[in-house]
């Protein structure tokens, strides 16, 4: 349950899609003066070194952000967040969702991050120092259910499990429904991997049945190496901001280019 460490996968194509769309959402929402809440259930360590032995071992960042970064316009919010992190931590630093959010949120916004893995939480506490984020060393799904609706009520929830706990696939549709009933104005984002075994299929079918207006943005890509099971990734979004479908379409085209 606590074995997953994202450093092996940081900056891969799934990260690029997830973080670029998250950055777009936050940029859209901070375009208005009203404050917002950002909540994340599986924050990880928040910052990753792409020249670390773990990242070099898999080569996933080489197939992901190393190839894709230059394809984003300099004023795209994802590129803006990357540049801010590089300026502070160096060119081989890669931000997880918490630092993407910290780079784009304003002083009046709030951020609450949960992480259960002890070593990842210690690293998160160090990497998010001076950002003003509230950090919680606990199960993120339980945390999200307990604190929603947040104050301010306008905001974004990122649910990003490792799916190493197989119960996640069965648990998440009900959790989304429960949170939506409590927080009907929140932008709820659920990331999922597309594996060759198709484990996400029943989960998506249940979400479509329960939340027929939810948007689903999915990309496909070849396995990074022989034996690698991930062949795509997706985001389920409840209450997507206006224009997000168009942005996701542009993203899919951009990431599919050779």
Could you characterize what this model shows?
β4, α7 and β5 form a beta-alpha-beta unit. α1 crosses α5. The strands form 2 sheets. Strands 5-4-1-6-7-9-8 form a 7-stranded mixed beta sheet, with helices on both faces. The chain has a two-stranded antiparallel sheet with strand order 2-3. The protein has 11 helices and 9 strands. By secondary structure, the protein is an alpha/beta fold. The radius of gyration is 17 Å and the shape is globular.
Element layout with pairings:
Layout: H1 13-29, E1 37-40, E2 47-49, H2 53-58, H3 60-63, H4 65-68, H5 77-89, E3 93-95, H6 97-104, E4 110-114, H7 118-127, E5 134-136, H8 140-147, E6 155-159, H9 167-182, E7 187-195, H10 200-210, E8 215-220, E9 230-238, H11 244-256
Parallel strand pairs: 1-4, 1-6, 4-5, 6-7
Antiparallel strand pairs: 2-3, 7-9, 8-9
Helix pairs in contact: 1-5, 1-6, 1-11, 5-6, 9-10
Offer a concise description of the structure.
It contains eleven helices and nine strands.
